[in-house]
């Protein structure tokens, strides 16, 4: 299977650079059996889920992981934290005209052109493309003071104060991601409460999204692609909720591809079991899903591993047709864009395409 099998044309004007004024007012393309579609508003997800269904959310919290600094020589540096190893140590991408050497100090600045301040970060070594950094005080404190929200590279603007709240789900609780689980951005507290009142169950997994989620597939044959690793936690209580849902005939609906990757990483033995650690699971057409019955997701980049994942779930031809319809109907794409609900058993008319 080739990378080009997942390519589609996307006009630049359909990339969402700003969030929708109201989280649940975004549009929702509902994709059912044989690729049929309906056009809805996201808040109508309330009508599409049934009592006894289980919604699985990713509760990771995006950290303001983008830092600006200056080397001792005066050269400017941009830092993107990839992973917090512990309270004061991290692995990071460092971009500069010349790579900083181990032992060098980087003086933090408020922005790209700002004067360096008194806070510094020590470069202690390297692990392949990532730099090992040591902070003088807890990383999250430093990021809260100096950090910027790590907006995706296709959002070509500087972050603003609003992004600290909007590039974050309302249920985010576990700090550690450098990109948002974007399908969850459409949910409000009121919508989640209404779903629970209807009898829809909720569960929370953790997948700390890394910067690798934006890395393009560079090989033509997708089987040669090396998937990036991300840290995942799925505890026994979630596993039991999945088992109970299946036993009562309910559906397990993953909110976002990160929730899919979490549940499926925990199900590689054939049955879901607790999982804690790194996963490099790569889901592409031909994969047999073990724990997920439905998927709420945003629209993804052409030729990305996420396009491959949803194509595995709903069928490549059907997904590509649905994306063509989304482009024709001028849906908003990517992190701050609109959403899809992929529900394979829903009998929607293909003639609506």
From TrEMBL:
InterPro entries, per the entry: QueA, QueA_dom1, QueA_dom2, QueA_sf
Cellular location(s): Cytoplasm
One protein family per Pfam: Queuosine_synth
Gene Ontology MF annotations: S-adenosylmethionine:tRNA ribosyltransferase-isomerase activity
Pathway in which the depicted protein is active: tRNA modification; tRNA-queuosine biosynthesis
Catalyzed reactions per annotation: 7-aminomethyl-7-carbaguanosine(34) in tRNA + S-adenosyl-L-methionine = epoxyqueuosine(34) in tRNA + adenine + L-methionine + 2 H(+)
Residues covered by region (Disordered): 93-119
Subunit structure: Monomer.
Protein name stated in the entry: S-adenosylmethionine:tRNA ribosyltransferase-isomerase
Organism (species): Spongiibacter pelagi
């Amino acid at each position: 299977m080739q990378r080009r099998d997942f390519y589609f044309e996307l006009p630049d004007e359909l990339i969402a650079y700003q969030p929708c004024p109201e989280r649940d007012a975004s549009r929702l393309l509902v994709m059912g059996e044989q690729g049929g579609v309906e056009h809805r508003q996201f808040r109508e997800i309330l009508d599409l889920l049934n009592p006894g269904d289980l919604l699985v959310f990713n509760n990771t919290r995006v950290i303001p992981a983008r830092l600006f600094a200056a080397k001792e020589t005066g050269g400017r540096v941009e830092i993107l934290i990839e992973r917090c190893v512990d309270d004061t140590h991290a692995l990071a991408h460092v971009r500069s005209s010349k790579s900083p050497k181990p032992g060098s100090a980087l003086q933090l600045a408020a922005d790209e052109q700002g004067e360096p301040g008194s806070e510094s970060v020590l470069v202690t070594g390297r692990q392949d493309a990532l730099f090992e950094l040591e902070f003088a005080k807890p990383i999250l404190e430093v990021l809260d003071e100096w950090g910027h929200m790590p907006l995706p590279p296709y959002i070509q603007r500087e972050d603003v104060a609003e992004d600290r709240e909007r590039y974050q789900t309302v249920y985010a609780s576990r700090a550690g991601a450098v990109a948002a689980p974007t399908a969850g951005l459409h949910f409000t507290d009121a919508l989640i409460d209404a779903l629970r009142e209807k009898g829809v169950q909720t569960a929370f997994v953790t997948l700390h999204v890394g910067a690798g989620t934006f890395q393009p597939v560079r090989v033509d044959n997708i089987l040669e692609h090396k998937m990036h690793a991300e840290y995942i936690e799925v505890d026994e209580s979630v596993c039991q909720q999945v088992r109970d849902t299946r036993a009562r005939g309910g559906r397990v609906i993953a909110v976002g591809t990160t929730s899919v990757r979490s549940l499926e990483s925990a199900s590689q033995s054939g049955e879901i079991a607790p999982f804690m650690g790194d996963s490099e699971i790569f889901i592409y057409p031909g994969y047999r899903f073990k724990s997920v019955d439905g998927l709420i997701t945003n629209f993804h980049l052409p030729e990305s591993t996420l396009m491959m994942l949803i194509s595995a779930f709903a069928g490549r031809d059907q997904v590509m047709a649905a994306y063509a319809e989304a482009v024709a109907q001028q849906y908003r794409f990517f992190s701050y864009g609109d959403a899809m609900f992929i529900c394979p058993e829903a009998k929607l008319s293909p003639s609506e395409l």
